[in-house]
C-alpha cells in the first residue's frame, strides 16, 4: 500500500469533490462553486488521479457515485466541517461561560483597580470565577509560563518584552504621608527637614533600597530609615502615632489617608519625582482569546471611568 504524501494534496480539490459528490455533475458543481465548467472538469481529472478511482460514473439517469465516492462522502463532510470549525473565529458568551480567571497584583492595587469587577462578573458571567494572587512575586515569569492570565504592575519585564502586551491603567507620582501630629505636617517640607526626619518605606520585593534612597545617594544625601514594610496596608498603623514618614504613590496615599489621622505632603522639590506608571500586562498567547479580551476590556473600561483624568489607555 503506497503512502500518501499529504503535502502534495491541494485541499481546494476536496471542496470541489464535495460539490461534485453532492451535485453528481460537473455543470451543477461549477454553478455551486462559481467556477467555470472547464476548471471543474480539470479538478475532477486530478481527483480521479489522486484517488485512483472514477468517482463519478455513468448511470441510468446521468452520473452516479462510485463505491469509493460513496465511502468518501461522509468522511469528506466531517473533514470539511472540522476545517471550517478550525478557521472560524472563536466567540465568547459571558452569560454561558465557565472557567477561572487568574489575576496577579498587590493587595492595595486590587482594592484600587479591581473594586467592582466581581460585581460585574456575577451579573454578566455568573459561571466564571476569579482568582486574585496578591503575593509579591515575579509576575512576568508567571505570565510567560501561563500560570496567570493578567498582571497589574508598576514594573516592566526585564526579559523578552515582545512576549507581552500592556495597557496603561493609571499614572501618579510620589507623595509623603505621615501622622497628623508629626512636626512635618505643618510648615514647608524642605529638603533639610525631610532629611532630618525618620522614615519608613514599603519594599514589595524585599530586596534593595527604595528608589528615593537611590536618588538621595546620587545627590550626596542619606536619610534615616527605621521601618521597612512589605505591604502598603500596614503604613497607616506605622506612621499615624509615630514620627515616621513614608513616600508612596499618591493614588495609594489618598486611599490610605481615608478615615485616618494622616496627612499627605509633597516631596521636597529637590528630589526627582518621575511619574509612576501602572500597567495591565498579558502574554501574547492570550492576546486574541475572546474570553481574555472580554475580561481585560472589563478591567480597562472600569478604570477608564475612574481615572479618565490621568491615564491615556493606549494598548500596546
Protein described:
It holds the Pfam family LysR_substrate. There is one protein chain. This protein folds into three domains: 10-87; 99-171 and 276-305; 174-266. It contains twelve helices and twelve strands. The chain has helices at residues 11-23, 26-33, 37-51, 67-87, 107-113, 117-124, 139-145, 191-196, 211-219, 235-239, 250-256, 290-306, and strands at residues 56-59, 62-65, 99-104, 128-133, 150-153, 164-172, 174-179, 198-202, 224-229, 244-249, 262-265, 276-283. It has a five-stranded mixed sheet with strand order 4-3-5-12-6. The protein has a five-stranded mixed sheet with strand order 9-8-10-7-11. Strand 8 (198-202), helix 9 (211-219) and strand 9 (224-229) form a beta-alpha-beta unit. Helix 1 (11-23) packs across helix 2 (26-33), helix 1 packs across helix 3 (37-51) and helix 2 packs across helix 3. It is rod-shaped. The relative contact order is 0.13.
